[in-house]
Amino acid sequence: MDEKEQQIYNENLEIRLLLEAIYQKYGYDFRNYAGAHTKRRLKHRKTVSALRNYSEMLHRIIYDEEYFNSVLLDLSINVTEMFRDPWFYREVREIVVPHLQTYPFIKVWHAGCSAGQEVYSMAILLEEEGMKDRTQMYATDFNEPILARAKKGIYPLDAVRQYTLNYIESGGKESFSDYYTADDRHVILKSSLREKVLFSSHNLATDGVFGEMNVVFCRNVLIYFNKELQERVLRLFYDSLCPGGFLCLGSKESLSFTGFVDKFEIVAAREKIYRKRRS
Amino acid sequence: MKSGKYQAVVIGVSAGGIAVLDKILPALPSDFSPAVMIVQHMAAGGGSYLVERYSSIASLPVREAADKEPIQEGTIYFAPADYHLLVESDKTLALSAEAKVNYSRPAIDLLFETAAEAYCRKLIGIILTGANADGAAGLSRVKELGGTAIVQSPATAEVEIMPLAAIHATTVDYIAPPEEMGALLVSLVRYEEE
């Protein structure tokens, strides 16, 4: 190793120790998150807090819970939009919903729901398809402040243009503006949209099954995990789904090269919609 | 066995990129051993077009970068539309859907900064034509960790903002027109092997 490689090696070692400290002290397990992404977020916080190195950051995290909370926010992903990838929602409406309509009652889990945009998208879709009254939705995230935001369903006004375009493109049947009221800076989603949604704290890295689901949404979450953690989470989804239940992943995530490739059939390849085999 | 120093090339390109990549990528011979990873800024809908285009005119295999994929030598990877492309320390590819950086997703800085840490001096970074400053910080990081920096000569760039920003940000090793860049890469890699 030359000097630079040694320097990177040492930094990465410091980060592993820092993540171990977070786990032991606060119980949040980022040890199996994708490394490059995690380092980038920590580097950002290191710069903002004018720390010289990750060992200083480790010390501060251990002794200052408030500081830890800011790091926790950095490490969670909260970038999403309503009806993100409209072609995905079109496929859900056209292919998944007809199956769901054959059940008297369905359960839908949004795992890693972040600020809730995709949860409300699905709530709208189910309402338009006449499924609302026989659905229970679960929206979970490990991050409590973000979960609180999800419960409120209030988003910046400037996001609405994109949301509206997505809604139309996804095959929405009404006028998107029926679903919100606006003030000068925000849109406030209709509270009736969350009547069937239970928001609760759940950590994919450490928590277990809490119900039998007909659909699991977990889009653009697995890419932030390493292979080992991905396998754990896929096992959790497999165990949570009823036979014939649907698993929906992000457009660049897939079951190929995982231990679960044979346990699901592909329903829509581009949209990454899978169905648990009735083994 | 090849003992070449360079294991990877990262390329960042924005406005006017296709015409330049058209000159560079077909000039890389089929025995070119480093992996080539490219961020071409584009709108959210685009993407697979680049893979199709260069599969037909480049000698090296061309793929869209997939999350967790081990990086193969002599392969050209394009960042998918609407995802950041990063390199892990174990030399696998990683995608991220986090916020735009420099108004861009994929962002050049993210690829360059993470590739620099994974490859250190075994990396070549190239900044081509473009209309914003994305890539300047990334190229600085490549240099800081001992890699080699190449920038398209601003006079030959359709938009010179990105090459100029990179030149101002760090000490660039080579400034070259796109016609010469393929041969430059080949000679850098060959020279190191001898």
Question: Would you write up a description of this structure?
Answer:
The complex is a heterodimer of chains A (279) and B (194). Chain A has helices spanning 3-26, 35-48, 54-63, 65-75, 86-100, 117-128, 144-152, 160-169, 227-240; strands spanning 106-111, 135-141, 154-156, 180-182, 186-189, 197-201, 213-218, 241-249, 264-268, 273-276. Chain A has 279 residues and is an alpha/beta fold. The radius of gyration of chain A is 20 Å and the shape is globular. Chain B contains six helices and nine strands; from the N terminus they run βαβαββββαβαβαβα. A seven-stranded parallel sheet of chain B has the order 3-4-2-1-7-8-9, with helices on both faces. Chain B has a two-stranded antiparallel sheet with strand order 5-6. In chain B, helix 3 (108-119) runs parallel beside helix 4 (136-144). Chain B starts with 7 loop residues before the first strand and ends with a helix. The chains are: A alpha/beta (279), B alpha/beta (194).
**Beta strands of chain A, count:** 10
| Helicity of chain B, as a percent range | 25-40%
Basic shape of chain A: globular
Fraction in helix of chain A: 40-55%
- The count of helical stretches of chain A stands at 9
The helix/strand order of chain A is HHHHHEHEHEHEEEEHEEE
Share of β-strand residues of chain B: 15-25%
What order do the SSEs of chain B take from the amino end to the carboxyl end, as H and E?
EHEHEEEEHEHEHEH
The largest sheet of chain A is: 7 strands, mixed
Shape of chain B: globular
Largest interface: A-B, 23 and 25 residues
Oligomer: heterodimer
Instruction: Compute the CA-based radius of gyration of chain B.
Output: 15 Å
The computed structural class of chain B is alpha/beta
Largest sheet properties of chain B: 7 strands, parallel
* CA-based gyration radius of chain A: 20 Å
Output mean pLDDT of chain B: 93
